[in-house]
Amino acid sequence: MNFVEEITKRGMLHNIMPGTEEMLKDGQVSAYVGIDPTADSLHIGHLVSVMLLKHFQLAGHKPIALIGGATGMIGDPSGKSQERNLLDLKTLRHNQEAIKKQLSKFLNFSNEIENNAILVNNYDWMSKFSFLDFIRDVGKHISVNYMIAKDSVKKRMLGSEDKDAEGLSFTEFSYQLVQGYDFLHLYKEHNCKLQMGGSDQWGNITTGTELIRRIQQGKAYALTSPLITKADGGKFGKTESGNIWLDPKKTSPYEFYQFWINTSDEDAEKYLKIFTVIDTNEIKDIIKEHKEAPYARILQNKLAEEITVMVHSKKDLDTSVAASKMLFGKGTKEQLESLNDNTFNAVFSGVPKFKINKEVISKGINIFDLLAEETQIFKSKAEVRRLVKDKGLSLNMEKFTNSDTLITDQYLLNNKYIVIRQGKKKYSIITT
RNA sequence: GGGGGGAUUCCAGAGCGGCCAAAUGGGGCAGACUGUAAAUCUGUUGGUUUAUACCUUCGGAGGUUCGAAUCCUCCUCCCCCCA
What we know:
The protein is an alpha/beta fold. The chain is built from 20 helices and 15 strands. The strands form four sheets. A six-stranded mixed beta sheet has the order 1-6-5-2-3-4, with helices on both faces. A five-stranded mixed beta sheet has the order 9-15-14-11-12.
């Protein structure tokens, strides 16, 4: 399989250095992408890069994931990154291990194959560099003129249409050199001839190829993918509750699944190509099928299924699908009751929970006191009253319409919870 | 320095001394419709055991009045024009 052709078909190619495709045809090489170890989990914003590596490996080449232990401390001026915090070494290693574990779901790190993926951390070589050595051995080869010509730097110095000049610190300015040196290092140590990344990384990557040319008289290449956008202009990968993480502790498999299910039609086509390895011809068929019956949302289902299984597991997918049917379909009280504790917690993880004393329920309590006073699910009784009047309140999946009804033990599911549903999507749980 | 205009509920923006918890639009919430979409339509949008009631709210502090978002005085902040 031809790597460049494949990612082109998938809409993952933004910019590529001439000669890259030919170089890749000449035999196995390695390529790398950088990942910031700022957290102990990847989020879906990292996925494009990861998928690039995956396709690269599928094409028979050797992928390298570079953990930016050193660069992460500096802060890339290409983003609007704020000053970074220094990670202590222990956290850095912890994050690195966690990220590797997640990456192994996409990439094959096994020594048994020839083109196994590897993970490196630029802290391991950068931390040994003294400042003097660095400016002498690396800085000497790149002119300031070259560095300030980069878009990311220029923007900060001169400002852009929508932004005034802000200037940048020497540290940020040096960023491209440090990243460039990584490329040189990997070129020497791992026959790494290609660096990939988001389109905002182009400038940083080419500093690397330039360094390799000047110091090693070598030829290295660059390839970038477009930044992922949403059709409505929103930022990809963010929801009201924040980032979508791959770590099930940070984003439950259910929320993860829901994120993909909620993709718009337009985006879903695009995402299916980028985030799954489904054959592009097959994707065409799926799109066609979807257009014939858009209400079935074949695209979204396929997308959510594939990615959830890849990142989590088939079992997590099944739970999420069941939970979704429960929450969005015609869930019933009986279905709710039939959930065991584990599934119940999985379905309602991420839903706000309110604990109250069991006696309060046993004695019987009216709906207003329960929702606006005992728990602060609603901020006033009038709000509850309105909602009941509008038929927007359900208890345990049953519409609650008569506000005179007293809430007693019989409302407790499994003698423990009450599921409060506001409108269609908003849930709260009262536990005793 | 002189003159003028303004500050209203989440936002914008009406508001005759009593009929003002305050028009209208946006946003929010809910309902119908639907595909957990978009659009549309409807209801709702200060609080109180829903009430032809009371309480809190129209920049701040006082005052006039039976009664003030509305009139008067002072203060704070914002905008515009002339020099």
